[in-house]
Amino acid sequence: MLLWSRSGRAVAVAVFAVLLVVVVIAPFAMLALAAVAGSWTGALPSGLTGAHLAEALDADGLASLLVSVQTALLAGAVSLLIGTWAALAAQDSPGPVRRLILGLCHLPIAVPSVVIGLGLLIAFNRAPVLLGGTRWIVIAAHAVLVLAFTVSTVTAGLDRLDPDYELAARSLGAGPARVLLRVRLPLLLPSLAAAAGLAVALSMGELGATIMIYPPSWRTLPVTIFTASDRGDSFLASASTVVLLAVTALMLFALSRVRSRAAVG
To answer: Which of 43, 66, 195, 242 could, after both became Cys, cross-link 35 (CB 3.0–4.6 A)?
Structure first.
């Protein structure tokens, strides 16, 4: 509903500000305080320390962080490749086929992530495709879980493309492959960068499916955070979460630079 009066707008802004502080800012602030808290027996922590952050960045913490980064990059690349192909195929297909392709690609987000994890574990836990107990089952699960968001982002980019560019290229004698590589994909670079960023961010924080299928040698940082929280070490869990947020933000910043350059180009 539109608010035309000044007092009505002021009330709406005040309510929004309160909700923003309570729902978004306060949890992040408490998390940051817990990461540097020596103890917390009152309303605010006391004895601030960097010991928890140092512990979060020890050999085990860095190993989990590296696993998360590798998993996110590999799963993001796989989902971007398959998702772009699916979006292009759906765009050029008749209506019923397009809806079927998009529906199948969005199916993983219509069910709990643990269903995806258990399904992959059962399907690929024996020859000829044995992924159980390896890093590849974790990467596969993450790729499946972020595929829907990749397809949605690329599809939205395709819908915004001006068809005149493709028609002009075809009129000049360019074949389908040349049109794809020299016209459609370059115009899609901002959408591809956005899809990659979303896939990486979602993969970095994925826990539900991962905790069911990960081998001890391939433990992601969210699993480490869950383990610390489960044994009651909330300070270490908070510190590891701060590290996860910082690294994810850096990765998204790098991908946003790519997107900005692609948009300018």
So the answer is: 242
Distance CA 234, CA 238 (A): 6
Q: What is the pLDDT of residues 163-183, one digit of tens each?
A: 887 888 888 887 888 888 888
Please state the pTM of the whole predicted model.
0.87
Q: What is the DSSP string of 228-256?
A: HHHTT-HHHHHHHHHHHHHHHHHHHHHHH
Two tokens, residue 150: 């990749």
Residue 4: what pLDDT? 67
State the DSSP code for 130.
E
* Residue whose token pair is 């391939």: 218
Given a cut of 90, is residue 264 above it in pLDDT? no
At 57 the three-state DSSP class reads coil
Domain 58-264 has CATH 3.10.560.10: no
Alpha-carbon distance of 33 to 44, in angstroms, equals 8
Which residues have C-beta within 8 Å of that of residue 221, sequence separation ≥ 6? 61, 64, 65, 67, 68, 204, 240, 243, 244
